[in-house]
Design goal:
266 residues, mainly beta, twelve-stranded antiparallel β-sheet, 12 strands, 58% strand
Amino acid sequence: MKKLIFLTSLFAASSFISCSSEDGDGGTNYNLPLNDGNYWTYDVNSEGVETRDSLYISGDVVMNTKTYKKFETLDNVATGFYSSSLRNNGVRKSGSKLLLSGNLSLASGQDLPFNFDLTLDDFVIFNSNASNNQTLNSSPVTGTIQETYNGYPLTIAYSLQSYGGESLSSFTSPNGDTYANVKSTKIKLNVSVTSEQTFGGFTIPITILAPQDLIISTLYTAEDIGVVYVNTDTSYSINSDIADDFGIPATNSQNQKEYLDIYVVN
């Protein structure tokens, strides 16, 4: 049975990050618990493989002169997309938005052919006032990563963006749990991969992975609780001949689900 502990006596003293008419964003902001000691545990299902993530707030951390709440995971282990995204990173609230700063190292649970370690600075991961499909960041986070795979030099170009989703008065997670006042957010990681090979003194560019959405993750956030359910699809498709040359599976698709189990917020 789920356990929920609310220290209601602290509510009036703004223990929750609460609605405010001074935030400048207009609309209604969620009360989102972002206090030291809060924790959430998630049952993670990756194509039938069951794991468990424990995510908690350990205290304050300062990045670029701004103060964030630092998220950590038990034993520094995470397999789910959501927990691995927040692990060892900072989150702060600005009006109706939640902003993430730190290094985004994607979880082993995504089973990607390449490594990704992205640096984020106030990347908007939630906005309670966003309309459906509205981009949450003024521009996507973009960059390139140089990596060697099976002896081949690779240039990996990426673009990370988040989008507003549905606003639901009631949401039932696929595991049967129902939550009130839920807002979804969609995060997309678009990736392309190229290489260069030299033949007869000529350098020839090779497209290994044409630009495509490698990861699409939908997060459902409930007021007064936090993220309650995450559905993440990972997929890519590569020309089979090129895939054979580079020793990479030509296609791959995976679905991962994260279900909130036990949580304590104050």
